[in-house]
Amino acid sequence: MTDDKQSQGTASFLLEMGMLKRAKRSGWWIAGVKDPETIAEHSFRTAVVGAVLAMMEGADPAKVALLCTFHDTQETRIGDIPHIGRRYLTASSNEKVTADQVSAAHPSVLAGVQAIVEEYENAESLEVTVAHDADKLECLIQAVEYREQGYQNVQPWIDSSLGSLKTDSARTLAEAALNMTSLEWQKVYLG
């Protein structure tokens, strides 16, 4: 592959990632949320939550944020399939989808992105545990915000997210979020 082809392949991957800004997290439609967050919005906050949790847990914040950033990139190809829908489908693994997504990219990008997704999906380390907790904690926080907006059917998302958390820091932050409003952060500045 020539450098031009590798550049085009890498740029194609970056353009494809832009679809995450337009694709909605479809599971929220089940709860009645009319205009749910996008996959990119979820991934952004998951990366921030992951970095914060990593700091609290003594993990590598940059590594966790990177794992979180790439954890749902495959959804440009397979969509955001709600958990209830997954029982009826046989889909390719996230690792296989990622391999296809970056197959024409620069070799360093190909190897790097594949390694990140492989680690997120299969490794057992503090960073991976924290990244998975960040995904669940972000979902819980989003459900709390939707509940505050009047969507009452989000309790199953709160319960399953809370029950999936592994780290003490994630459980502590979840409990705090459950007892706050989404505008509570303003009290620090507004008194």
TrEMBL record:
Positions of the HD/PDEase domain: 35-149
SUPFAM superfamilies found in the cross-reference section: HD-domain/PDEase-like
GO MF entries: 5'-deoxynucleotidase activity; metal ion binding
Class of the enzyme per the UniProt entry, highest EC level: hydrolase
Pfam family, one: HD_3
Catalytic activity: a 2'-deoxyribonucleoside 5'-phosphate + H2O = a 2'-deoxyribonucleoside + phosphate
Keywords: Hydrolase, Metal-binding
Cofactor requirement: Mn(2+); Co(2+)
EC assignment: 3.1.3.89
Any one annotated GO CC term: cytoplasm
Assembly, per entry: Homodimer.
Classification via PANTHER family: 5'-DEOXYNUCLEOTIDASE HDDC2
Identification of the protein by name: 5'-deoxynucleotidase
Taxonomic source organism: Kitasatospora setae (strain ATCC 33774 / DSM 43861 / JCM 3304 / KCC A-0304 / NBRC 14216 / KM-6054)
Taxonomy of the source species: Bacteria, Bacillati, Actinomycetota, Actinomycetes, Kitasatosporales
